[in-house]
Amino acid sequence: MPPRTPSEIVEELPSVIQGGMGVGVSSWQLARQVAQNGGLGVVSGVAPDLLLARWLQDGDPTGQLFPVLARYPDQDFVQATIGRYYRSQGRAPGAPYRPIPRLDQHQRVDALRLAALGSFAQVRLAKSGHDRAIGINLLEKIQLWTPAALLGAMLAEVDVVLVGAGVPVHLPRILDALAACEPVTVPLDVVDAERGETFDITLTATDVVPNLTGPLNRPAFLAIVSSHILASYLARDTLTCPDGLVVEGPTAGGHNAPPRRNERDERGEPIYGPRDEVDLEKLRKVGLPFWLAGGQAGPAHIDAAKAEGAQGVQVGTVFALSQESGLTEPLRRALLGGLKSGEARVRTDPVASPTGFPFKVVEVPETIASRGVYEGRERNCDLGYLRTAFRRADGSIGQRCPAEPVDAYVRKGGSAEDTVGRLCLCNGLTASAGLPQLRRDGSVEPSLLTLGHDLAAIHLLIERHPEGWGAADVMDWLLESDASADTLPAALGAAAS
Predict the structure, then answer these.
(1) pLDDT at 139
(2) CA 417 – CA 433 distance, rounded (Å)
(3) Is residue 67 helix, strand or coil?
(4) d(CA 80, CA 85)
(5) Do residues 138 and 45 make contact, with C-beta atoms less than 8 angstroms apart?
(6) What pLDDT is stored for residue 162 in this prediction?
(7) Residues 200, 193: contact at Cβ < 8 Å?
(8) What span, in angstroms and rounded, lies between the C-alpha atoms of 290 and 277?
(9) What pLDDT score was predicted for residue 252?
(10) What is the DSSP letter of 489?
(11) Where are the beta strands (DSSP E) in 283-418?
(12) Alpha-carbon distance 122 to 436, whole Å?
């Protein structure tokens, strides 16, 4: 039987897409449960190399990693990775995690191989035990890792690729080239590049996975967009056109598109207005299948989305708090307790993310969102996924991040003003997934939490499941045939924000 085309994959996708959240929050356990219960399960494609290396150093706590790694086509590299990182008894008390190689414009082969292997493991674990579709979610901003992470996911037969936090104009071409096992060249965004100057990153699949032969199955591509304008721009050409869209409103968790008007309210949060709303009539004219995201959790929202011409909805926050997500149990309990009492507040922080995009931050004690914790943490950038490439005076390329030490950022040509209020998302989100780095002074990297504004849905699930819920409970609720049961308030967007 021939492989399904991307269009056929999209046509068969369910009405519920699980959001791709954080570094490991959209865990393979969560994605697998969602898929087995009728939705599109999605793993996070951010930092798959880091997650794999730290799982191995913690002794593979689930016991399911090694059978999956045994299926990878480059067993020499698998054994080298196990030899480098695996600790059968876990790390010794007080021992930090061993660092992994970082990527730059020159694309170190060992770093590319680890990214591909980590992505393969995430997707393959999520696909084990069932034959339902699995997706992977990436950030367009993380350009250096994208081709290798996609290659690993495609080796694991991922069905859908979702990309947001930018303009993913090159994704269709990348997927086509990887499927054919042809070299991939992607333009690199470089700050301070001179007019007419271009920089590229290149990946050759056989350099990453020796003896690889194609073709590979080409997954469907869903672009995450926040406006009908961007949707029309991507769809204008077959070389840039996605196979479908996830249309995300500003109430969604994680990164958000900036508002059209650069204004803030009395709490310092960006103000979104009518101009930031998606014109669904114009979106329908684009002619691509789409799912609505941001404040869309609930049976009534699925019905409403379909009435607007959507295939369904993407849902994140209620899955982030489910028992299978990558959040640690203490953080999950703290969040649920704070949400029940009303003490945990979600705010849209315009400067927290090094990317420059607004980012949803949950204010919970003992996380980096607390001023005392933020000020007490020593700034560093030892993971570097959200670094920005910049041109040095001599024409070479460097990497910098506004969340790194201020003097280092300024020395690289950055402005000290850009460092104010920046949070280290890489370390904070990794800590939230239970894999925090231990520092030389004995301190542990603090967690960073992000949720959407659909708190009405959270409160309905708390009423149903006061001790917490699993992904299957969420799917049962979302797919209820009687949309009047636990119907969300009509003004959910206003109530949530």
Answers:
(1) 92
(2) 30
(3) helix
(4) 9
(5) yes
(6) 97
(7) no
(8) 15
(9) 83
(10) P
(11) 290-293, 312-315, 345-349, 359-363, 388-391, 397-400
(12) 19
Positions of the chain with pLDDT lower than 70, given as ranges: 1, 481-497
- Strands 160-164, 190-191: pairing is unpaired
- Reading the block at residue 82, the tokens are 């196990």
Instruction: Specify whether the backbone of 312 is left (phi greater than 0), alpha (psi in -120 to 50) or beta.
Output: left
DSSP characters for 420-471?
TT---HHHHHHHHTT-PPBPTTS-BPPP-----S-HHHHHHHHHH-TT---H
User: By three-state DSSP, how is residue 222 classified?
Assistant: strand
Instruction: For residue 115, give both structure tokens.
Output: 């990214």
| Residue 16 structure tokens | 């519920």
Query: For residue 126, what are its two tokens?
Result: 């999520």
In 71-148 the beta strands, taken as DSSP E runs, fall at: 134-139
- Cα angle for residues 52, 243, 290 (degrees, 5° grid): 95
**Token code pair at residue 107:** 């694309």
Q: Position of tokens 């990775």?
A: 81
Tokens standing for residue 25: 């929050």
Decide if 252 contacts 202 (C-beta within 8 A): no
**Would you state the structure tokens that stand for residue 406, as one six-digit string?**
């201020």
Model's pTM, two decimal places?
Answer: 0.94
Contact partners, residue 492, CB within 8 Å, separation at least 6? 295, 298, 301, 454, 456, 457
| pLDDT computed for residue 295 by the predictor | 81
At residue 56, the 3 state secondary structure works out as helix
Q: Which residues make Cβ contacts (< 8 Å) with residue 494, sequence separation at least 6?
A: none
Q: Residue for token digits 């350099």?
A: 207
Per-residue pLDDT reduced to its tens digit, 16-64: 999 988 899 999 999 999 999 999 999 999 999 999 999 999 999 999 9
Residue 487's Cβ-side half-sphere holds a number of Cα atoms within 13 Å equal to 10
